[in-house]
Design goal:
By secondary structure, the chain is mainly beta. It has one domain. 8% of the residues lie in helices and 31% in strands. A hairpin with a 2-residue loop joins strand 8 and strand 9.
């Protein structure tokens, strides 16, 4: 799989391995792998449905109705913020049947990327709104001219094509289990606003962002809602 051309002129694969006769070798890296800590004999599972990029963790939230959402950041300059919503609901309890069911939750579902709008406002009271733009839905690609398989292998390029918002290195994405708000820690991005690079926007309000920032996302309706509200929280210095 050679991969589609990037609409943003960026790389189409991670340079995470030395040269290899197998041209697909780099495409085997950049996924979330799940390990069952209760069963040391179990086999780790690679979750292709969560996309391929420089994952900085995958933090899970379970709604009261059992809906499972996974929040993920791509820890590179001008990359993206993602969410995965599992097709099946979480099954409560510790029975063998419940465990088997829940261990398959991240196998199938829908993958989204964040697109924000709005500008920095006086006092930073509210920076705008956004939407979770689908990359895959019901096992099919939502990205023009890309197959479902290509979206999951070349996820960054898929996000380019739907015009997602390039972020300032999403280091960690933490959903609050009580309030439902989502907090995104962005490490930094000194290239923000530099010649030839995107300038400040509602989600990334600082030009030459050396110290990073944290934003608070309020999702309306439910975890799979496509409408977001974005608010600043505080500055973050990387130690």
């Amino acid at each position: 799989m050679a991969g589609p051309a990037s609409t943003a002129g960026r790389r189409s694969s991670h340079a995470s391995t030395p040269p290899n006769p197998d041209a697909a070798e780099p495409h085997r890296f950049g996924y979330i792998v799940e390990i069952d800590p209760r069963d040391p004999q179990s086999t780790p599972v690679k979750h292709t449905a969560l996309g391929r990029f420089t994952h900085e963790g995958a933090n899970v939230r379970v709604d009261d109705d059992g809906t499972v959402a996974v929040y993920m950041g791509d820890d590179e300059r001008f990359e993206y913020l993602y969410k995965f919503v599992a097709r099946r609901k979480y099954r409560r309890g510790n029975s063998a049947a419940a465990r088997r069911h829940n261990l398959r939750l991240l196998t199938n579902g829908d993958l989204y990327v964040a697109r924000f709008s709005g500008n920095q406002r006086p006092g930073n009271d509210n920076l705008g709104q956004g939407a979770w733009v689908p990359l895959t839905l019901n096992g099919k690609s939502e990205v023009p001219d890309m197959t479902h398989e290509e979206v999951l292998v070349f996820t960054r390029l898929a996000a380019d094509r739907v015009k997602a918002t390039p972020m300032d290195r999403c280091e960690d994405v933490e959903p609050n289990p009580r309030t439902g708000k989502v907090y995104v820690a962005c490490t930094n991005n000194p290239d923000r606003g530099a010649d030839g690079w995107p300038g400040p926007d509602g989600a990334n309000p600082r030009a030459g962002n050396r110290n990073g920032h944290v934003i608070e996302i309020t999702e309306r309706a439910n975890r799979a809602a496509h409408i977001l509200r974005l608010e600043p929280v505080l500055g973050l210095r990387r130690l």
